[in-house]
Amino acid sequence: MPNYYVVNDSNGGWNVKIAHAQRSSFHSENQSIAEVEAKRLSRNTGGGEVIIQGVNGQFRDSDTVSPAKDPFPPKDKRY
After folding, report:
1. Considering the domain boundaries, does residue 71 fall inside one?
2. What single DSSP character describes residue 78?
3. Which secondary structure element, helix H or strand E, spans residue 13, and what is its range?
4. Domain that holds residue 29
């Protein structure tokens, strides 16, 4: 199960990349669209982690996509 990253593109917009990949799998001008596409790609490859980079360059969030199992499930069942 590969991990997918939503990262800033140096030319503007957002890229979806598989861990350690040179090229992006998807590009969008909108971060939320890139996040949805990363989750779709992850689901189609058997699940895994989608890690999202913030505007400041630091990673701000990550989601486990089914059918992968979350190693640290949230205690509150809201998500």
Report:
1. no
2. T
3. none
4. 4-65
pTM: 0.83
- Tell me the pairing of strands 48-53 and 4-8: parallel
Residue 75 lies in a domain: no
- Residue 35 falls within a domain, yes or no? yes
Contact criterion met (CB below 8 Å) for 65 and 44: no
How many other β-carbons are positioned within 10 Å of the β-carbon of residue 64?
17
Question: Whose CA is closest to 28, among 52, 2, 63?
Answer: 52
Q: Which residue carries 């971060």 as its tokens? A: 31
The answer as to whether 50 is a domain residue is yes
Question: Can you give the pLDDT of all 79 residues of the chain as single tens digits?
Answer: 789 999 999 999 999 999 999 999 999 999 999 999 999 999 999 998 999 999 999 999 999 888 877 777 766 565 5
